């Protein structure tokens, strides 16, 4: 078997972290990397000591989103779980500012607007993601461009064997 490149290696770790998530609607994992050194891992979850999605069920909110449907803008109703702290935010809570300066974040899913905003102010200089999140994609890309952060999707990445069933829905 060919040796894994660093991008694949760290994205695998982000997916490993995501398997810890107890939210059945979305499992997100992320790692902080400085040079080639792993400085932190995190996943989405309820605050420590508070019942999580597996115990208390997901906390669903419904929102309307403006979407392009066959070339027309339409309001589409969407559901999401708001019980958890997002993986990226947990990563920022559990790492030091000094460690983050000039570092790279690998995250299984493209960050939402709030997480992107926080990452943009966190000292991180590069964000690598795998699965797209179209809802916030455009404004997040603009923000990263303005901040001069490297923001890239890992193309051609394949999930490590055995992880598949747990994180794909
Ligand atoms: Zn949930
Ligand atoms: Zn987020």
TrEMBL record:
Belongs to the cytidine and deoxycytidylate deaminase family. Keywords: Hydrolase, Metal-binding, Zinc. The keyword Zinc applies. It comes from the Bacteria. The keyword Flavoprotein does not apply. SUPFAM superfamilies: Cytidine deaminase-like. Its cofactor is Zn(2+). This is Deoxycytidylate deaminase. Residues 5-154 form the CMP/dCMP-type deaminase domain. CDD domains: deoxycytidylate_deaminase (cd01286). It comes from Marinicrinis sediminis. InterPro entries: APOBEC/CMP_deaminase_Zn-bd, CMP_dCMP_dom, Cytidine_deaminase-like, dCMP_deaminase, dCMP_deaminase-rel, Deoxycytidylate_deaminase_dom.
